[in-house]
Amino acid sequence: MTLSGKSAIITGSNSGIGLGIARELAKAGADVVLNSFTDSEKDHALAAGMAKEFGVAVRYIQADMSKGDQCRGLIEKAGGCDILVNNAGIQHVAPIDEFPIEKWDAIIAINMNSAFHTMAAALPVMRERGWGRIVNIASAHGLTASPYKAAYIAAKHGVVGMSKTVALETAQEPITCNAICPGYVLTPLVEAQIPDTMREYNMSREDVVKNVMLTRQPSKEFATVEQLGGTTIFLCSDAAAQITGTTISVDGGWTAL
Ligand code: NAD
Hints:
Belongs to the short-chain dehydrogenases/reductases (SDR) family. It comes from Shimia gijangensis. GO terms for molecular function: 3-hydroxybutyrate dehydrogenase activity. This protein has two domains: about 200 residues, NAD(P)-binding Rossmann-like Domain (Rossmann fold), CATH 3.40.50.720; about 35 residues, no CATH class. The chain contains eight helices and seven strands, in the order E-H-E-H-E-H-E-H-E-H-E-H-H-H-E. The site of nicotinamide-adenine-dinucleotide (NAD) has 26 residues, from helix 1, helix 4 and helix 6.
């Protein structure tokens, strides 16, 4: 499938899942805007490298997704938006009575409020261009809960609910809005935790992965950033034109338990 001529904005895309999705969109021919809150040479070099690798336009636009005006500014600066992927996210783990207020506020702002602001700014642009795809990266924790992750789970459930609402508001237009709910995904961040956990529990890599990290993922395999990219491409395809207001789990069976 080709997304040639389409412009895609992926929030939080200088690493991990966002970068993986951006790479698959560029591979499919879309022009891509990468984003994070930093503004380093490395960020711009990443965009230049991808442009060369895939032969599409790739720009890096700095914007802090914890700030509503910067979320809206990202869409404005991009100058066009056919595909919006809300991916930026952070995590903090603590019991609710000890949860730091500033962490709660940051998680709700980056993981949930940013999607409100970017969707509000992107929808008029999509309407004007007569086509749009919104893909919100929620989580298995948008559908289920775990202890100590109150802010993350509240935000991800919020993203799932917001996706349904936007789908209803755009139901009679050529625009869809869905949420992808990944289980545990092998990102550089997750990979980096493996050696420490091996030492902590005196376990092999295989045991750490299967019995510590993937206890709730029945497949005992991580999802990959390429698989999440592929799911995003599918949601952008004509085959998915009637898929809107729903969640797609990429979680090795987690939510079937
Ligand atoms: P990551 O830390 O590699 O990526 C997060 C991205 O968000 C980075 O590019 C980071 O720079 C960016 N970001 C953070 N704060 C930002 C801010 N204030 N403004 C703009 N960008 C900001 O993590 P990841 O695992 O790739 O996670 C990406 C998304 O996928 C998150 O929403 C996360 O909740 C979700 N998710 C991850 C997993 C997993 O197992 N890795 C599972 C389910 C859902």
